[in-house]
Amino acid sequence: MSHPVVDRFQALYRDLDMDHLHLLGDVYARDVVFIDPVHRVEGLTALTDYFRRMYEGVAEIDFDFEDVVADSDRAFLSWTMRLRHRRFRPGETLVLPGASLVRFSGHVYFHRDYFDLGAMIYERVPLLGGAVRAIKNRL
């Protein structure tokens, strides 16, 4: 089932960068709660600030949405993010699978991202990365 809010959500993340942060208000409610493995952010202003800080070093980012399951007030979307950062491993493209749960009523008022933070950060830090990968291989 396609839903206009879910369609706007996907379009936002296909276009989102430092120059398009003003589009967050087209998708998110003023009192949005956003949670990812690193932060919990409450309110559209705080979310915009969070994204501004995150996108400062982004050279390129792209989201491919694979599966979308939606009903009248919530959706679960699986995606793959491709990210190149100017300062963190410049020149390398990080490919990270993840998923988002969103709840909405006209606008998204709850957004929770699920992804492997270790694959995103810890495994790419010298010395620490090797230890994290060794632990994961033993499990």
Fill in the CATH topology.
Nuclear Transport Factor 2, Chain: A
CATH structural class: Alpha Beta
Average pLDDT figure: 86
| Main β sheet profile | 6 strands, mixed
Q: Helices and strands: which structural class?
A: alpha+beta
Strand order of the largest sheet: 2-1-6-5-4-3
Question: Hey, roughly how much beta strand do the residues contain?
Answer: 35-45%
Secondary-structure element series? HHEEHEEEEHH
Roughly how much helix do the residues carry, as a percent range? 25-40%
Rounded to an integer, what's the Rg over CA atoms?
Answer: 16 Å
Total separate domains:
1
Tell me what the CATH architecture is.
Answer: Roll
Q: Distance between the terminal alpha carbons, to the nearest Å?
A: 38 Å
**Spans of 5+ residues with little confidence (pLDDT < 50)?**
none
Provide a count of the helices: 5
**DSSP, total strands:** 6
This entry's quaternary arrangement is: single chain
Overall shape? globular
Provide keyphrases for this structure:
139 residues; alpha+beta; Nuclear Transport Factor 2, Chain: A; 5 helices; 6 strands; 42% strand
Q: Which secondary structure elements does this structure contain, and how are they paired or packed?
A:
Elements: H1 4-15, H2 24-27, E1 28-35, E2 40-42, H3 44-55, E3 58-70, E4 74-85, E5 93-105, E6 107-115, H4 117-120, H5 128-138
Parallel strand pairs: 1-6
Antiparallel strand pairs: 1-2, 3-4, 4-5, 5-6
